[in-house]
Amino acid sequence: MLESLQALDRTIFLTLNGMHTPYLDSFMYIFTSKLVWIPLYASILYVLYKNMNIRMVIFTTVMFALLIALADQACSSILRPIFERPRPSRDPGIADLVHIVNGKRGGMYGFPSCHAANTFALACFIMLLFKNKALTTFFMLWAIVTCYTRIYVGVHYPGDLLFGTIVGFAAGAVTYGIYRFCLRIDGIANGLKYHQDRKLVKNPTHMRQTSVIIFTGLLTIATFAVFSIWWRPM
């Protein structure tokens, strides 16, 4: 059974990874990078700052950091050493068939995917924090495309991404649970001046300027979509 699933995983991977063009090499390589999304992350903090008092903004930012730490470390430090499944770019059985972009093969093991865990953890937390359909849709699509880029550049099987997604949703739900639990503790709530933002946290649909986050994300994508017309990976 396991061997059949792994064979199917390889087949799906090779099919998707084999569909490439010079333009998509550039676009996917940039999309899957981490630093290009700094404006998007900054826009989230901007919207929080515009709606919450500064102590709540700092506390929520700490929760974002905890969120990524949980998702990332669960994959990289706990699960990968247990399963030790090579990335497709490192798998002796198919490595020669894998389309690699810019020579980047990643580390030895790729199950589950940290990229999938991190992006879906963020998408889940955003969904629970803002309860905004447009934001949720944007971040879910962003996470899905991010997962596809990991197949495209040859560093993850679909199975790596699927289990990374499960880890991400779990990390997002757990972190949001910790977030709300902390706000029920009087000492923490008083220190954060939570009473000022209680209604907003419980009914976040009233948050202002949330469209700034979507606009920033779309503008970021549009920028490197145009840039990819001229730039090519080494």
Helix content: 55-70%
- What's the domain count? 1
Look at the helices and sheets and give the structural class: mainly alpha
Bin the strand percentage. under 5%
Span between termini: 40 Å
The CATH architecture can be named as Up-down Bundle
Shape: globular
CATH class group: Mainly Alpha
Q: Main β-sheet: number of strands, strand sense, barrel status?
A: none
Protein name: Phosphatase PAP2 family protein
Keywords: Membrane, Transmembrane, Transmembrane helix
Domain Phosphatidic acid phosphatase type 2/haloperoxidase: 61-176
InterPro entries: PAP2/HPO, PAP2/HPO_sf
Structure description:
There is one protein chain. With 234 residues, the chain is mainly alpha-helical. The protein has one domain (35-92, 100-220): Up-down Bundle (Vanadium-containing Chloroperoxidase, domain 1). Helices cover 69% and strands 0% of the residues. The longest helix has 30 residues, at 54-83. It is globular. This is Phosphatase PAP2 family protein. Residues 61-176 form the Phosphatidic acid phosphatase type 2/haloperoxidase domain. Keywords: Membrane, Transmembrane, Transmembrane helix. InterPro entries: PAP2/HPO, PAP2/HPO_sf. The chain crosses the membrane at residues 27-49, 56-79, 109-130, 137-155, 161-179, 212-231.
